[in-house]
Amino acid sequence: MRKLLIAANFKMYKTISEAKEYMNRFLPLVKNVSDVDIVLAGQAILLPLMVELADGSNVEISAQNIHWEDEGAYTGELSSKTAKSFGLTYTILGHSERREYFGETDETVNKRLKNALKNGLKTIFCIGETLSERESGKTFEKVEKQVKEGFKDIAVEDLKNISIAYEPIWAIGTGVTATPEQAQEVHEYIRKLLSTIYSKEIADSFRILYGGSVKPENAKELMEKADIDGALVGGASLDPEKFHKIVLH
Ligand code: PEP
């Protein structure tokens, strides 16, 4: 059985006081949840505070991106080695906003993935198609390319530290959610692909999350689907009570 993973992506939201207030309200709400892994991804500058506040709780803290080198002359980037030294356990990689606005490619995401795994960070690896790719029947082709190129030369023993987040770009921040059937169809495809590339055993234990306008009202029907193992949540995660409802769905 795959344990659900439900992750919040705060993107570039929250000041220090807002982050403190969030943690103070959210942590008590979920303190008895043991059947879901809960992760919060904040802006880089908030991460040490979030790690400190989450210490001893059942909530893990994630970066939203990390660089592919341990250190170096890369102004504005975040090192996974440094992140790990602060107690972070997760990073998101390949988010469509990184791919769209910051020139991230399958190749750079692959390099970042290798570095995250090397430094012991678990990864939420984002993939997904645009609306025009979906409308022209290219969804499977796109996600297959993103998985094959993104996972190039990743050691089989590291796969247990990766979850895929299938996030159709047309559903991110738009209020339009993929129907549970649309999401399930792609999740099933991704699982079969993992089975072909690796093995059925690896594919069966691999967590595949859905992301794209998940909210308390649609979380249950999405996560009831056979191949949906959790969610990556943007907008609706910014409110601790709403995100708590998604965790409990
Ligand atoms: C995301 O940023 O990963 C996301 C899914 O955002 P939203 O829930 O707002 O669509």
- Protein structure class: alpha/beta
Q: Provide the number of structural domains.
A: 1
Low-confidence stretches: none
Summarize model confidence as the mean pLDDT: 97
Strand fraction: 15-25%
Instruction: Encode the helix/strand succession as letters.
Output: EHEHEHEHHEHHEHHEHEH
Q: Can you tell me the CATH class? A: Alpha Beta
Got a strand count? Answer: 8
Give a structural overview.
This protein has 249 residues and is of the alpha/beta class. The chain is 43% helix and 16% strand. The protein has an eight-stranded parallel beta barrel, surrounded by six helices. The longest helix is centred in the C-terminal third of the chain and has 18 residues. The structure holds phosphoenolpyruvate (PEP). The site of phosphoenolpyruvate has 13 residues, from strand 8.
SSE topology sketch:
Elements (H helix, E strand, L loop, with lengths): L3 E6 L6 H15 L5 E6 L5 H8 L4 E5 L16 H6 L4 E4 L2 H6 L4 H13 L3 E6 L3 H5 L3 H12 L11 E5 L13 H18 L2 H6 L2 E4 L4 H8 L6 E4 L6 H9 L1
Parallel strand pairs: 1-2, 1-8, 2-3, 3-4, 4-5, 5-6, 6-7, 7-8
Helix pairs in contact: 1-2, 1-11, 5-7, 7-8, 10-11
Bound molecules: phosphoenolpyruvate.
Brief descriptors of the model:
alpha/beta; TIM Barrel; eight-stranded parallel β-barrel; 16% strand
Task: Characterize this entry briefly.
43% of the residues lie in helices and 16% in strands.
